[in-house]
Amino acid sequence: MLPVRTMPLELPRAEDRLLGWYDRGLAEFGDTAQGAHWPNEHDRRTRFEVMLDVIEEGPDASVVLCDLGCGTGELLAHIRDRGLQQVAYIGVDRSARALAYAREKFPDAAFVEVDVTAPDADLRPIACDYLVANGLFTGKFDLSHDEMWAFLVATIERVWPYVRRGLAFNVMSKVVDWERPDLFHLPMDEAAQLLHRLAGRRVRLRADYGLYEYTSFAYRPLAANVPVLRPLLPKADRLVPYLRRIDATRIYSNHGPLSVELETRLATYLGLPAESVACASSGTAALVGAILATAGRARDERPLAFLPAFTFAATAGAAEACGYRPYLLDVDAESWMLDPRRLLDHPMLAQAGLVIPVSPFGRPVAQQPWQAFHEGTGVPVVIDGAASFDRIEEAPADFLGPLPLALSFHATKGFATGEGGAVLSSSAEVVSRVVGALNFGFYRARDAEAAAINGKMSEYHAAVGLAELDGWARKRAALQAVVARYRLHMEKAGLGERFVGAPVTSLVYAFHRCRDAKEAQQMESGLETQGVDTRLWYGLGLHRQTYYARLPRDGLAVTDALAPCLIGLPMAPDLADAQIARVAAACQQGMKTSNARLPRPRSKPPR
Ligand SMILES: *Cc1c(COP(=O)(O)O)cnc(C)c1O
C-alpha cells in the first residue's frame, strides 16, 4: 500500500514552478529558441521587433531598455544585429542558469538576477525608460489561469514604478481556433483593463504580426513634467576619435594636444589669434584665473570687488576666492547689467580693487565702455561672460578686447564640455598670465611665481569640447529653431511680448517675463501645476542667498523688481514642438489665473 499523506503538500510558488519549467527547457535544448520554449527562430525575431516597437522615439533613440525575463539574452543579440547602438540594455531574469549563458555571450552587458515579485526585491537596478517582457506570460505550463493572471498582475504592478516611459508584454490570444492548455490565453479586455489602471488612455494592443498572440503596450502619461533644462552634449561615438588620441599620447592634462587644439580652434572660430584663448576647468576657475592674472589677490587698501547682485553665485565665489569682499551693485533696468558710467562717481570706488560686470543669461557685455572705465579709473575689470559664447560669436569685435572675458562651458550652457571654461583676451600677455594663474603660478619653470590655483582643463574635457565644436553649427541651429518655435507659440498664445530669449539672451534661455512679483508667483505655481518646470536662474539675487546676505551693498531696487519676474522656461536643443506648445499653453493658462486673482477693474470711476 502506498503511504497516505496526512499533511497537505505545500506547492511551491507559481513563480518557482515557472522557473522550473524554463530551466528544464534550457537543460534539454540548450540556448536555442526551443530551449526558451519558442517554436522557431523566425517567430522569435518577429517578437523581438514587436517588443522594440515600444520605444516611442524610434529604435535609434538613446534609451535604457529593460528585458524582463531575458533568459539567455537573445534580445540583446537581436539589438546588436540591428546595430541599435543607442539602446542601453539591462537583462533581468530569475534563472541563474539562463543568466550564465547570457553573461558568457555578453560579458560587457548588464544582467541582473532578481525575483521581481519577491517582497524584499530591490528593483532599483532595473530602472529604465522602457521595459519589455517577451514570453514571460505566454506559457503557463501547469499553472492555473488564475495563478498565471495573478503572477502577471503582480509582476507588472511591481515593475511599473521603475519604468520611466512605457512597457510591453505579450500573451496568447483568445481569438484563435484552439487554445493550448499549457499556454496563457488572456482576453484582450482584461489586458486592457490592467494597462488602463497603470497608464490611463495611453494604452495600445498589437495583434497584427501573424502569430497567435498579441502584445500590450502601456505608456506613462505625456504629462510628465517638462524639465527646465535638458542638456545635450556630444554622444560617445563622436568622442571616441579624440579619446583614442589620449590613449595614444598618454597625455591627460597639462596643456596637452587636445586642449591646445581646442584653444586654437575656438580662437580661429572667433577670428582671434591663437594665443587669445586659455581653457579652464570651469567657468569659475576661468574667473579666478582672469582675476589673479589682472587684479591679483585683494590688497588691504582696495579690498572690494564690485559686482552685480543680479548674477549666479559663482561670480561672488570667484571674487572671494581671490580675497576680495564682494560689494553688490544694482543693475540697469534695460540691460540687466552694471552701467560703467554710473560707477564713476560711486562713493566706494576708491576701495574697489576689481569690477566684475556680468553677462546676465548670456547677454553680452560690450568691451569698449568698460575699457574706458578701466582707463579712466585704473580699476581692473574682469568680465563674467558665463553663457555668452553664442552671443559674442555674432559680433566678436564688440565683445572681445584686452579686458579678460571668462566663459563657462558647463553642461547647462550652450557651448558645453560638461565642466569647463575659458578666458578670452586680445592681449597675449593677459592670456599667458591666466595660463600661469591656472597652473600653480608656474610660468617658465616649476617655480610658483604668483598667486594661483590648479584650474587647467583636462584632456578629457577638451575632447568633449572638440566634439562639441565639430557639431556646434548643428546644435546652434537646433537651439535657434527651438527659440523660433517658442516665439511662435507664445505669440499665438497672445504672450509674444512676454517672451524673452535669443537674440537678447543666450540661446539656452527662454523666459516668460512677468509684470511684478505677485504675478510671477502666481505664474510659477500655475506652471508647476501644469507640469512645467521653471527656474529663477539667479534666484532672487545674491543678497537673498544665505551666505551672501551679509555682503555690503547699494540699494537693489532694480534687482529686486527684475529677479522674480524673469521666469526661466524649459529649454533643450531637442525640445519637441508639442512640449513647447504645452509650455505656451501653460503660460496662457497661468496668465488667466493670475489675472482672475487680481482685483477687477472698476467700470466707472468711484465718485
Ligand atoms: C554658469 C555661470 C558661472 C560659472 O560657471 P561654472 O562653469 O559653472 O563654474 C559664472 N557666472 C555666471 C553668471 C554663470 O551663469
Please tell me about this protein's structure:
The protein is of the alpha/beta class and 607 residues long. The chain has 20 helices and 17 strands. It has a 7-stranded mixed sheet with strand order 3-2-1-4-5-7-6, sandwiched between helices. A 4-stranded mixed sheet has the order 8-14-13-12, with helices on both faces. Strands 10-9-11 form a 3-stranded parallel sheet, covered by helices on one side. β2, α4 (96-105) and β3 (110-113) form a beta-alpha-beta unit. α9 packs across α10 (313-321) and α9 crosses α15 (428-437). The longest helix has 21 residues, at 472-492. The protein is elongated. The relative contact order is 0.09. Bound molecules: pyridoxal-5'-phosphate. Pyridoxal-5'-phosphate (PLP) binds at residues 282-284, 311-312, 314-315, 358, 384, 386-387, 408, 410, 421.
Number of strands: 17
Q: Give the radius of gyration.
A: 31 Å
Largest beta sheet, briefly?
A: 7 strands, mixed
Number of helices: 20
State the end-to-end CA separation: 111 Å
Shape: elongated
Tell me the β content. Answer: 5-15%
Cofactors and ligands = pyridoxal-5'-phosphate
Q: What number is the mean pLDDT?
A: 93
